[in-house]
Amino acid sequence: MPVSLYASPPGVLFPRGSPQEWGQAARQPPGLLPAQCRAFSNNKILVELDTSSGVATMKFKSPPVNSLSLDFLTEFCISLEKLENDRACRGLIITSAVPRVFSSGLDINEMCGKSREHYAEFWRAVQEMWIRLYSSNMVTVAAINGSSPAGGCLIALTCDYRIMVENPKYIIGLNEAQLGIVAPFWFKDTFVKAVGHRVAERSLQLGLLHSVPEAHRIGLVDEVVPEEKLQEKAAAVVAQWLALPDHARQLTKSMMRKAVLDHMLAHREEDIQNFVNFISKDSIQKSLSMYMEMLKKKKS
Ligand SMILES: CCCCC/C=C\C/C=C\CCC/C=C/C(=O)SCCNC(=O)CCNC(=O)[C@H](O)C(C)(C)COP(=O)(O)OP(=O)(O)OC[C@H]1O[C@@H](n2cnc3c(N)ncnc32)[C@H](O)[C@@H]1OP(=O)(O)O
């Protein structure tokens, strides 16, 4: 029986829609899904659960860059809740169906030119995503098959294990400072837990985006593999972690993460107010607009 200290996190996001029901393999046209597979999808995310291994694969499919919009975050949370409540599911691999990008982080459009109410709703959704993933009873592995700045990096950091594809073009890190914004304390805490205080301090202050070998060297990713080996490796890692008794692994995970999680939950409302006040400032709005301009110019 799975044990969770955080099975129902307080302040749960109320979904604005719900994903399709699980698609039973038996109802699929022949050859589409193996018999032991169930699947569901929405506009942003595809989930396939292999009931024989108990491992689900979640693929982000929101082109061009899987940015974390309010809609994306809502669908993400609904999908996580569905998997968490499914006794057949014990492990989760998170990856991208969009070429070259895992996730470009929070959707900057959600933080520009909107009302204070919108910022509060958006930030609550960001928190919700982190709480659900960080407190998950499932074994979670990020199979990072593309660039993963800021919020994309946070998703990876929130998993139990990170495997990244070796590619000289891919980057990963918490680059918020480069945008003139600040990674909040729970982004920072999650990062520090992975790489240690000194590395995190330097990386956060400089808003560094690390190459794959560098990310591996500093412990931001646990393993680096060629693209064609990624899924196989992720499946092997989940199987290794699932070989342990669930209750022992889950309680250990809760114990290791409790302080960071409790800190965040205790300051959740204050964190929302801080975000709203910070992001509403004219100077911050200007910084974000300039950054978006820069992204667009880079293309031309
Ligand atoms: C003490 C007081 C403290 C108070 C603190 C309180 C609260 C904290 C306050 C704020 C915290 C905010 C935390 C923010 C976290 C974030 O995640 S911010 C997002 C950061 N993300 C980035 O910097 C990534 C930017 N994107 C890229 O670098 C690249 O797009 C790429 C991901 C490497 C992919 O490159 P490429 O394949 O070349 O694609 P393009 O650059 O051409 O992009 C395609 C289109 O997508 C648009 N886009 C890219 N990223 C985003 C994004 N994050 N949001 C929205 N839109 C994005 C890009 O503009 C292109 O659009 P067009 O096709 O030109 O229309």
Automatic annotation (TrEMBL):
GO molecular function, one term: delta(3)-delta(2)-enoyl-CoA isomerase activity
Keyword entries, A-Z: Acetylation, Fatty acid metabolism, Isomerase, Lipid metabolism, Mitochondrion, Transit peptide
Gene Ontology CC annotations of this record: mitochondrial matrix
UniProt enzyme class: isomerase
Gene3D superfamilies reported in the protein's UniProt record: 2-enoyl-CoA Hydratase, Chain A, domain 1, 6.10.250.170
Coiled coil: none
UniProt EC number: 5.3.3.8
The family this protein is said to belong to: Belongs to the enoyl-CoA hydratase/isomerase family.
General function of this protein: Key enzyme of fatty acid beta-oxidation. Able to isomerize both 3-cis (3Z) and 3-trans (3E) double bonds into the 2-trans (2E) form in a range of enoyl-CoA species, with a preference for (3Z)-enoyl-CoAs over (3E)-enoyl-CoAs. The catalytic efficiency of this enzyme is not affected by the fatty acyl chain length.
This protein's name: Enoyl-CoA delta isomerase 1, mitochondrial
Taxonomic lineage: Eukaryota, Metazoa, Chordata, Craniata, Vertebrata
